[in-house]
């Protein structure tokens, strides 16, 4: 399954819930304010790094750039994808869910 | 003629810039207060500190770069601009990551700042 998260990790617990529940081997795409969770050096980076060892964690390039993070170092194991990559992920996984 | 009452306003901006319209609406409201010649200070805390991140390019997601206007607030006599140290640290942001120099204050100083103003607005 592909999990979509668009909430800031510092304002809501959405990303925590997703990472707690998501099965190993699934994919998590962080977009909109969710991309803040994928940046290296924040207070949630350790949780993301642990998750990235068990599942595929991606952040949306366009939303990073919008927020001034186009050149930011990401948490180890977390990958950048662009809009085309987003579409490819949605095709690759059998189902997609958006966490609210 | 009596001088209109002036109150000291503190604007607290707590939301990330592009995930909702709240941050931008806060700036619009701030400019309205300034138009009424009220002294205004501004503080960024929680996800609000992300509004100060340099090199934002929200055209990539079809949004306006309203944060680019912050360095011009001095034109409107808004000179006291603060960011909370704890909020920056939690998000891995350093002062050199910001689009303008601001006064970095800790939480205790921010509490005192709130006490020192007549009206505190939160956006």
Give an overview in words.
The complex is a heterodimer of chains A (100) and B (123). In chain A, strands 4-3-2-1-5 form a 5-stranded parallel beta sheet. Chain A has 4 helices and 5 strands; from the N terminus they run βαβαβαβαβ. By secondary structure, chain A is of the alpha/beta class. The two termini of chain A are 16 Å apart. The N and C termini of chain B lie far apart (34 Å). Chain B is built from 3 helices and 5 strands; from the N terminus they run βαββαβαβ. In chain B, 33% of the residues are buried. The mean pLDDT of chain B is 94. Chain B has one domain: Hypothetical Protein Ychn, Chain: A, CATH 3.40.1260.10. With 123 residues, chain B is α/β, with parallel strands linked by helices. The interface between A and B is medium-sized, with 23 and 24 residues.
What's a quick, concise take on this entry?
The complex is a heterodimer of chains A (100) and B (123). By secondary structure, chain A is an alpha/beta fold.
Hey, roughly how much beta strand do the residues of chain B contain? 15-25%
Count of all domains of chain B: 1
Please mark out the parts of chain A with pLDDT under 50 across 5 or more consecutive residues, or reply none: none
**Unreliable residue runs of chain B:** none
Order of helices and strands of chain B: EHEEHEHE
The CATH architecture term of chain A is 3-Layer(aba) Sandwich
Q: What is the CATH domain class of chain B?
A: Alpha Beta
Summing up helix and strand content along with how strands pair, one would put the structural category of chain B as: alpha/beta
Helix/strand-derived class of chain A? alpha/beta
Query: Into which percent range does the helicity of residues of chain B fall?
Result: 10-25%
Distance between the amino and carboxyl termini of chain A: 16 Å
Greatest interface: A-B, 23 and 24 residues
* Main beta-sheet strand count, sense and barrel state of chain B: 5 strands, parallel
**Fourth CATH level, the homologous superfamily of chain B:** DsrEFH-like
What is the approximate shape of chain B?
Answer: globular
